[in-house]
Amino acid sequence: MEEARIRVLSDEVVNLIAAGEVVERPASVVRELAENSVDAGAGMVSVRVEEAGLRKISIEDDGFGMSRVDAVLAFKRHATSKISTSSDLDSIHTLGFRGEALPSIASVSDISIVTRPSSSQLATAMTVEAGVVTKCGESGAPEGTLIEVSDLFHNVPARRKFLKSQATELRNVVEAVQNLALIHENVGFELLSEGRSLLSFPRACPLGERAAKVAGVGVEDLFFHSVAGPLGRLVFAFAAPHESRGHRKSIRFFVNRRSVNDRILAKALSEGYRGLLEHGRFPVAMLWLEISPEEVDVNVHPAKREVRFRDEGGIFRFVAACVAEGLSKAPWVRADESRGGGSPSVGEVAGYGLAGEGEGYGGRTRVAEALDEYAARALSGGVARTGFSTGGFRGSSFKGYGAALNFNERSSHVEGKESDRLTGDEMASPFGPLKFLGACDSTYLVFQTEDNKLIIIDQHAAHERILFEKLMESGRRVAGEQLLVPIVIDVGAAEMAALGERAQILESVGIIAEPFGQRSISINRVPAGVTALEAEAMARDALGGEIFDAHGGVEERRKELCERLACKGAVKARMALHHSEVRQLLRDLSLAKNPSHCPHGRPLVLRLGRPQLESLFHRR
Fold first, then answer.
1. 74: exposed, middle or buried (C-beta count within 10 Å: 0-12, 13-18, 19+)?
2. How far is CA 33 from CA 77, 100, 165, in A?
3. Backbone phi, then psi, for 587, in 5-degree steps?
4. Can you tell me the distance from the alpha carbon of 130 to that of 555, in angstroms, rounded to the nearest whole number?
5. 587: nearest Cα among 318, 382, 406, 367
6. What element of type H or E holds 63?
7. CB within 8 Å of 145: residues ≥ 6 apart
8. What's the maximum distance between 2 C-alpha atoms anywhere in the chain?
9. pLDDT for position 182
10. Which has the closest alpha carbon to 218: 338, 364, 327, 377?
């Protein structure tokens, strides 16, 4: 008889495969176990981690515990108390419903669990090693459950090898606990790392305070707008556009009390913000959407990070309209309306007495104050800049970088004297000797080559390339200016956790940032020529940006900051240059490694020969 080539996998291998889907990193374990605590009716959930969760994860709750029979069954695959029939899959109201979390975690770690229901005087104490129950007995313990996960991935070294640095993994744990705190405002959460408190959300802490703490803004700077419609109920929390970030981590979506990543919601949010944000900037925004369970499939992703809507078009229009309406009623837009009282709770979104449909909530009560602050920030980020009013680095703004463009006061005015502008003079350039013909719109420098070709150079992009390469080639800390009064900004716990890892990157571009209390950082030094608001934006982007690891990630983040620094310091469009400035620009451009494109990849030079010109004039 022929030997079968297809075989049934052992439970050990099956659990390891399931663990690969469910348990990606320590944050996955924290999320799964904490969700089980919430489903168990916990009023307080305490999370403790050591070495970012790789050595130990401890989660304790005061919910209803399990009997010995249930505790043993909980570690069996596809064992759950939350689903009985196939029809239950169409109306899931709980979080941890798959019945794979505990056996999957147990297959890649050692677990001890102590749990006691209210109906028992003694608790069940169990030890599970590599998926096998090795001890089961009784002990004294308060009502609730305590689970300790030790030596995560000790039997899967390949998985440990692909984890990020401890600082990055800890940041992911912080994000997981923050998301749970934003969904369940009637449950208290705390997170401790190496015995030090990182997060604390008391049970009495309202949603508005929690959201502001996570977003890293003041409670008075976060605004709420709620809407109820045929498709469901939605609460939109947002900060003013000047609080925007250079990364998407300031955006959070919650659907039926689940944190999700969804392209439909992301597009709807972007549509609602159309015209309010610069390209590459992302709002501080949170969306809580509550719809009928029959209208959304939450069982489409192993880690429950994605959902699928039955009516995607309807959800898109509903969310986009709510976002646009909320922004249109914001206090920096409408000075004739006062705002409502406190922020709504998630329970109100879920239909438990949502008041004031379509009204704004929370934040400031003094509209004039918000308007004044927004106007001041907008101006300071635009025309009224301190440090370099002309937009260029003046003299020795960056010490040690050689000759920078020596802009004088006349450079900031297009209406300079005609004698200040050079015409008909040859200048050395990376494209050979060029005859300067003039400037178009005080932005594009026009030259003629020796073989009668036309060269057009974008002065801003050219200067940006020069400054960027000088910053990158320094390889050392950029000289900065000590501030008489430090800039103090509120940050979220995740941003604070990232400061230790990313302070070195900020320092490499001249920004010195240090902790200032539990929820703030102080910026004590900034690069010469950079305003306080620009330094604050760069610090926030560095602390809250996409996760990067030690394999070249630090240098990549430094490169991004150098790009921004060069863009801020480069000569701006419509700023007329005179003889010495144009000559110096070409001289410095000749030393650049890539004199054809700016750091963002846009071309900075255009070359037109006789054939192209004749074609434009239909001469051939």
1. buried
2. 16, 11, 22
3. -65, -45
4. 39
5. 406
6. none
7. 37, 40, 60, 61, 63, 65, 66, 113, 114, 115, 116
8. 100
9. 96
10. 364
What is the average pLDDT across 153-182?
Answer: 89
Of 599, 596, 600, 576, nearest to 429 by C-alpha is: 596
- Is the confidence at residue 136, as pLDDT, over 80? yes
**What is residue 479's predicted lDDT score, i.e. its pLDDT?**
64
The CA distance from 274 to 292, in Å, is: 29
Instruction: Give the single-character DSSP code of 620.
Output: -
Tokens of 171: 């940041």
Alpha carbons 15 and 49: distance in angstroms, whole number: 24
**Which pLDDT value is given to residue 53?**
94
Tell me the residue length of the chain. 620
Residue in the structure block whose two tokens are 């005859």: 435
Query: Looking at the predicted structure, is the pLDDT value of residue 496 above 90?
Result: no
Q: Report the 10 Å Cβ neighbour count for 283.
A: 23
Q: Which residue type does 243 have? A: E
For residue 75, give every residue at least 6 positions away whose Cβ sits within 8 Å of its Cβ, in sequence order, or none. Answer: 102, 103, 106, 128, 131, 133
Instruction: Measure the N-to-C terminal CA separation of the chain; round to a whole number of Å.
Output: 82
Q: Token pair of 106, please? A: 């147990």
pLDDT at 80 > cutoff 80: no
Going from the C-alpha of 396 to that of each of 370, 401, 407, 498, 579, the distances in angstroms are 38, 8, 11, 32, 20
Cα distance between residue 340 and residue 223, in whole Å: 10
Residue whose C-alpha is closest to residue 523's, from 218, 471, 515, 376:
515
| pLDDT tens-digit series, residues 107-135 | 889 999 999 999 999 999 999 987 788 99
Contact between residue 330 and residue 367 where contact means Cβ atoms under 8 Å apart: no
459 near 571, Cβ under 8 Å? yes
The rounded Cα 190 to chain-centroid distance in angstroms is 22
| pLDDT for residue 546 | 52
